[in-house]
Amino acid sequence: MKILFFGDIMGKAGRAVVKKTLPDLRAEHNPDLVLANAENLAHGKGINLKTITEMFDAGIDFFTSGNHVFDKAEAKLVFEKFPDKIIRPANFDDSLPGAGFKVIETKGQKVLIANLNGQVFMEKQYEGTTANPFKKYDEILNLVGRDAVIRILDLHAEATSEKRGMGFWCDGRLSLFVGTHTHVQSADAQILPQGTGYITDLGMVGAAQSIIGISRESALKRFLADENVVEGTSLEIAENDKYEVAFIVAEIDEASGKCKNISSFLKTV
Questions:
Q1: Which residues are catalytic?
Q2: What's the predicted TM-score (pTM) here?
């Protein structure tokens, strides 16, 4: 089974480049499943019905997310309308909408897709969000059992060490591990010793020559501001005529669930 996985899609620019490039990428790589991280779809923070529908129409099959997924009020409606096509981090509080993992069917085969939020350097946005992602993944596997041979995990986290640790913790129990959140693609796509495809961070899909999808001017103004000064330092989503698209393509053996190969791509269009 071949999987194409985009990094965080950042605002209008990110949505534009998905629509522009995905038809050609499908023709070139012939993926069976196209995945992406949705937490920044709606103007850089959160999701709404318009933006998620736009991306489904563009050809994304399924979405993971992260710490900003509930920043827009419409997020609840998204999870209600598309319960089988988007997940939120499983170690968020259970009172929040949506599920933290799903078992979907692709090519007649069951595929587990799970989403977790990191702990290290990550802001705590929700009461009760204290579940350890390492232990939470074990819980997910205990629930799913042998129901799905192909297993995919998106750990939305800041620290490269935490993502690397999760990769080895799950090695042999995962088909594919991807990290998201930093919007900077790491140069370490590889197959771990027990057969798990791995990359520390997928990167982003958004405006090129920006600061992780934010306009250079607004980001630098924030960096240069005195401590605790907020006025006049709001961050603006970058939008220009050049786009950055980051993704991986991984091929998974359908009998064993092990990754046969994984390649990372970072293009400017």
A1: 68
A2: 0.95
Radius of gyration of the chain (CA): 18
Cα(33)–Cα(26) distance, integer angstroms: 10
pLDDT in tens, 188-238: 999 999 999 999 999 999 999 999 999 999 899 888 887 665 555 678 988
- Dump the DSSP string for the chain: -EEEEEEEE-HHHHHHHHHHHHHHHHHHH--SEEEEE-TTTTTTS---HHHHHHHHHHT--EEE--TTTTSSTTHHHHHHH-TTTB---TTS-TTSSS-SEEEEEETTEEEEEEEEE--TT----STT----HHHHHHHHHHHHTTS-SEEEEEEE-S-HHHHHHHHHHHBTTBSEEEEESS-S--S--EE-TTS-EEES---EEEETTSBTTB-HHHHHHHHHSPTT--TT----B---S-EEEEEEEEEE-TTT--EEEEEEEEEE-
Got the DSSP string for 171-185?
A: BTTBSEEEEESS-S-
CA dihedral (104, 108, 110, 116) positive or negative: negative
Domains of the chain (ranges, CATH numbers): 2-268 (3.60.21.10)
